[in-house]
């Protein structure tokens, strides 16, 4: 579950046995993982929002890492 800690101004990924502090725009990426978007769709949306960022490579790698950790299905 994605939450925002207003005290620390950080996005948090709240899991059953841990809390992961998300840095930078990681919370934005996780927030787009709502089950209706594909990875290419998420990449496309983020490329529009952040045209100078290397989202085409960074975002799929980040999502793969989340899946490997079991934090995203």
Automatic annotation (TrEMBL):
Coiled coil: none annotated. It comes from the Bacteria. GO terms for molecular function: quinone binding. GO terms for biological process: pyrroloquinoline quinone biosynthetic process. It comes from Streptomyces diastatochromogenes. InterPro entries: PQQD, PqqD_bac, PqqD_sf. This is Pyrroloquinoline quinone biosynthesis protein PqqD. Pathway: Cofactor biosynthesis; pyrroloquinoline quinone biosynthesis. The keyword Mitochondrion does not apply. Monomer. Interacts with PqqE. Keywords: PQQ biosynthesis.
């Amino acid at each position: 579950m994605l939450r925002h800690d207003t005290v620390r101004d950080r996005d948090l990924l709240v899991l059953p046995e841990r809390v992961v502090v998300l840095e930078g725009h990681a919370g934005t990426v996780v927030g787009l993982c709502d089950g209706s978007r594909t990875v290419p769709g998420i990449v496309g949306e983020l490329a529009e929002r952040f045209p100078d960022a290397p989202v085409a490579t960074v975002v799929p790698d980040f999502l793969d890492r989340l899946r490997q950790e079991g934090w995203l299905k």
